[in-house]
Amino acid sequence: MEAFPFSTGVTVRFAETDAQGVAHNSNYPIWFEVARVAYLREYAGGYNAVREKGVEILVTETYARYLSPAFFDDGIEIGARCRAVRGARFRFEYEVRRGDELLAEGWTAHACVDAETLRPTRVPGWLTEAIGRAEG
Amino acid sequence: MEAFPFSTGVTVRFAETDAQGVAHNSNYPIWFEVARVAYLREYAGGYNAVREKGVEILVTETYARYLSPAFFDDGIEIGARCRAVRGARFRFEYEVRRGDELLAEGWTAHACVDAETLRPTRVPGWLTEAIGRAEG
Amino acid sequence: MEAFPFSTGVTVRFAETDAQGVAHNSNYPIWFEVARVAYLREYAGGYNAVREKGVEILVTETYARYLSPAFFDDGIEIGARCRAVRGARFRFEYEVRRGDELLAEGWTAHACVDAETLRPTRVPGWLTEAIGRAEG
Amino acid sequence: MEAFPFSTGVTVRFAETDAQGVAHNSNYPIWFEVARVAYLREYAGGYNAVREKGVEILVTETYARYLSPAFFDDGIEIGARCRAVRGARFRFEYEVRRGDELLAEGWTAHACVDAETLRPTRVPGWLTEAIGRAEG
């Protein structure tokens, strides 16, 4: 897998652990979202900027593969990159690392909809351009 | 403590446990809410009915006391009752039981606000009456 | 898609909604788990029975596809079935319905490990048999 | 209220919002915990250091008062301080701020128990001293 040019740090919260003593799998989509939001803040003026322009971003699919558990108080890095912008759709890919160790990887698929009508709308040009600059 | 005439059942989810092997304390306000919503469904046409009448119910305070832990897959009962309706404000009291054992108790304080202006608004008469009938 | 012989009901909690006004995507893996746990309770003596026999079930992958949003207080049904038991691994498939409407579908992949050593261990015969009876 | 000498920053996650468009009340006990863990990391070698010495810290009570909502992507500061160490018990106080604005305040009560027997055990001397140094 290629490098992730963008990443953001998260410390595993005690509330995120489960009775197996590890971070529960339902936290990974939340961490993916934290990284996606940080990515959009860095490159596209923030998720609120997208919403203020009348576009809502929906999550249409989530995939995650867990290779090694994350533990309470671990400092982990969530890498994120945006791929495959086409029409109303795009995709984010993620990896979760603790130092050099890959803990999990995954992706989410997204659709842009008009915030009023909830109908699909093309990924706005300024967002495509912002992503292009980030990933170029 | 007097009896709770209304209660609703919850089964402790694995995702709700933490690395101490018990249900994490942040779940209790959620279970309180589950019971409050079920109470309003039973006696006042449901929380959505409240919202549709242009009233938003805010949570202004939460208190919980944990006496004994709840474990994964435990069937627990959340008792709820409404108290002290005054002006825009009211209060719910709760208890969490596993069979005869009291696991936790607590209360939440609430304010009614106009959904448009977010200004305090009297607890609607029909809601006060519904609560009166429930608690009478 | 074939029928799901087993399903369990969940009511969408207010705490599970997000600022888009719908159930947040991170709840679906939790609902999948609720259905998986209920399935194992129904057919295999419960997840705690599995753990008490020294076997820990890990989640190794999660996939979900969201077709239509779930809203606060919706009564939804989570269908679950077990597939593809092989060696230490098996897979659950899910669908989330509100009445006749399919809201989401997904699957999780699992590995059995020895609770002491955390090394992969074959899916226990009694569990394979229980699943066979459930799915036959 | 006196100043909080210690605080830690949190950015409100989209997953933490609810259908009222604000951070759900159940996140405040989690943020309190994030600040408590960061406090113990700063002054007492971390929560894992406490656990490794055979002491488990239980949460016995939680109180929170919500003054003003927190919104998605808000950068907030959670102030924490430790009070009233007595026998096996102590107490943390918190405030949640967005810049100069106080959004919420609260406290949690705690008991130290022996990790093996789960019986109450005096707050360890080194922890009392660490807290004394932090708060002095």
Write the topology of this structure:
The structure is a homotetramer of 136-residue chains.
Chain A: E1 6-11, H1 27-44, H2 47-52, E2 55-66, E3 75-86, E4 89-98, E5 101-114, H3 125-135
Antiparallel strand pairs in A: 1-3, 2-5, 3-4, 4-5
Brief summary:
The structure is a homotetramer of 136-residue chains. The first copy, chain A, has three helices and five strands; from the N terminus they run βααββββα. By secondary structure, chain A is α+β, with helices and mostly antiparallel strands.
Protein architecture, described:
- 4 copies of one chain form a homotetramer.
- Chain A is an alpha+beta fold.
- Chain A has helices spanning 27-44, 47-52, 125-135; strands at residues 6-11, 55-66, 75-86, 89-98, 101-114.
- Chain A has a 5-stranded antiparallel sheet.
- The longest helix of chain A has 18 residues, at 27-44.
- The first copy, chain A, starts with 5 loop residues before the first strand and ends with a helix.
- Chains in contact: A-B, A-C, A-D, B-C, B-D, C-D.
- The A-C interface holds A 20, 25-30, 33, 56, 58-66 and C 20, 25-30, 33, 56, 58-66.
- Strand 2 of chain A pairs antiparallel with strand 2 (55-66) of chain C, so a sheet runs across the interface.
